[in-house]
């Protein structure tokens, strides 16, 4: 009588999408949904940064950015808003977050989602080579019909650690949203209504 082979359990696939989310907007949500589908993730953890070492401007208080992220992302399937970086003292380094996640789920595959600008800046990150070892880097490429923007190309020595995520063109940026709010212009097409209401209720991004 033959022995039935043991079933192979697939490794849990966890996406990681960090950022200031100051504020979170519709393009962020589109990227999250595309990553969950394209990478076949079991879950994607949206992680607002705590202390952003690489930002020249001060961020809005972490509790506001975390609250807005929860309003923007919590209802999306397989998406979890993770507060760990806002609770951690000192600069928020991605490598520390990935190490923590690996300790929680030792057998999981980690997929770090980022834009092309972040991918180009990756060699300036703290312990960036450890980041490459801990996670597959998934670079969101937006369609560029003009050909004016240079395409991100991974170094040959690291290209096996990168994947591409194709994204439609969505000309939305947090910088533009903050400027619109300061100028008392509507941002309702760019952010979800609960986020817009939170911004208004807490008087965020308004000049004095």
Cα end-to-end separation: 81 Å
Report the C-alpha radius of gyration, rounded: 18 Å
Mean pLDDT: 89
| Helix proportion range | 25-40%
The SSE order reads EHEHEHHEHHEEHH
Strand residue percentage: 15-25%
H/I helix tally: 8
Give a quick account of the main beta sheet: strands, pairing sense, barrel closure: 6 strands, parallel
What is the number of domains?
Answer: 1
Question: How do the helices and strands line up, and which of them pair or pack?
Answer:
Blueprint: E1 13-19, H1 26-38, E2 43-48, H2 62-73, E3 79-81, H3 84-87, H4 94-104, E4 109-115, H5 116-121, H6 128-134, E5 136-142, E6 162-167, H7 174-182, H8 193-201
Parallel strand pairs: 1-2, 1-4, 2-3, 4-5, 5-6
Quick overview:
This protein is of the alpha/beta class and 208 residues long. It has helices spanning 26-38, 62-73, 84-87, 94-104, 116-121, 128-134, 174-182, 193-201; strands spanning 13-19, 43-48, 79-81, 109-115, 136-142, 162-167.
